Amino acid sequence: MRSSLISLFTLGITCCAYAATPALTIYNQDFAVVRDVIPLNLQAGINHVEYSGMTGDAEPDSVILRDPAGKIVWQIVEQNYRKDTASVDRMLALYEGKTIQFQMPDGKLVSGRILRAQTPPVFMQPATYYQQPPGGPLQPMIELDGQIRFGVPGVPLFPAGADHVLLKPTMDWTIRSNQKATVDAELGYVTGGLTWKADYNVVSAEDSDRVDLIGWVTMENHSGKSFPEAQIALMAGDVNKTTARRMGGQILAQAAMLGTGSEQPVVTEKPFDDYHLYRLGNKTTLLDSETKQVEFVHANGISTKRIYLYDGTDLSRYINMYTGYDQIRNISEYGTAVNPKVWVMREFVNSAANHLGIALPKGRLRFYRQDTGGELEFTGENEIDHTPKDETIRVYTGAAFDIVGNRKQTAYRVDGNFQNRQADESFEISVRNRKAEPVAVIVREHMYRSANWTISVESDQHVQRDSHTIEYPINVAANSEKIVKYSVHYTW
Fold first, then answer.
1. Is 446 in contact with 465 (CB distance < 8 Å)?
2. What's the average model confidence in pLDDT over 10-26?
3. Among the three residues 287, 312, 336, which one is the final residue of a domain in this structure?
């Protein structure tokens, strides 16, 4: 039990946390930590406790049941988690060998004995995957009027108050207490079926690169349980979890919006361990199969920069052909395939001076721009990773329509003996600007034939970004073309 306790506390339950209402810490990795309160009326000795408020995707080995005040000492002798809730197949299995009534399509009632219920699927690892028995599921067998029938003859009618029928996933404990006591116990466990993500909408005016940013958190509950008036926290970060969980259910399209009209912030953020924790300021109800959205950041006047980047080398066709320098040094056409697209990048600094400066969880960044009539038009989107404050965000949003690139190899020569080999290669890169205004473009080039290289001749001054990448920042006048030329010398 001690190892489970440490793991669960690490996942977000602090040692002194105790709430009279349900509490959730949802992770953006398809799982959550649930905390709830269970009134216990214990007798000295052995007690049997049943709790039917579990989720349908709980991890039983993560369950902790404790006295939050630490005054009552008990031992959990045994715990059992059942989620085989009532269904036609389950009820047929419970009544196998017994006689029940069936309602026929014409309303007539007939009696039949269940010889065999439908064969259930065989669950594999992980538990969310299963396979049917060989030959497919076996149909129910019903004895009716002295004959055996495959499949149920009508709607089965089961007696009310049947034993062992679960309406909800249930946990039951056998608890040994050293004293008689009444206590509000705290239950905590890890469950699948709950997740959250961040989405950002970025809006700019037609003639400005200053933008407004609105960030939403979207919570999805497919756990099989509703959480009324719950205290909800959202954990952002790459928390290691040893087993992957798969979220079940279908995502609904509707969303319940929460306004920002209160004086208190809707969501507060703070560092937690090596991650970041976002707490909803007000209790909220998160229903099963519900998608709920909450605004968590709203910033105006953020300064951004639009960057045009031309990376004319298209190496995609060579990915599976060559694996190392020794294979590409003597192939003259390697790296000569051309990408004509000029990328449009958007960049901004996540700092307080730039009206942001908070930890931004990973999510989708959507860009909109107002036209002259004030209407918003979508101009691109991309994903960002978890981004701390004071870091720079740069994302690709699309390809420029009116800026075109071209790249061609103008010379290539390999020379040298076995001990001193060398190669020389020359390129000419052109960028054509068909806009009515000048643009600044970054031309990116890759030194891909050897780790040892020098630029021998160049028309413009390059900037070295890493051991294999150089860039030429150039300005291209309106309706004109700019050409960059360079030669590189390789040795190996």
1. no
2. 55
3. 287
